[in-house]
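User: I'm putting together notes for a lab meeting next week and I want to include a structural view of one of the chains we've been expressing. I don't have a solved structure, so I'd like a prediction I can at least talk through. The sequence is below, exactly as it appears in our construct file.
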Amino acid sequence: MSTVLSILLILDALFMIVTVLLQSSEDDGISALSGGSSDSYFSKSKAKTMEARLALGTKIAAGVFVVLSLLMLLVK
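Assistant: Thanks for the context. Below is the predicted structure for the 76-residue chain, given as structure tokens.
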């Protein structure tokens, strides 16, 4: 059981690393501190973009990582 959880944990970690690396940077920089925003139509409808899918995949992978880590703690 512990071996299966270890393999799943490693695969999930690799998936999370890939999804984080594929995301583009926000490039707001200092202008975000002063209240400058770069809102446009395309930035407001991010739910359908690949960036939004990658962000969702990262969130799900992080949640699965936490659950698998806790299960590993209970199994050992």
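A couple of points you could mention at the meeting. Helices lie at 2-22, 41-44, 50-75. The chain has a mean pLDDT of 83.

User: Perfect, that's what I needed.
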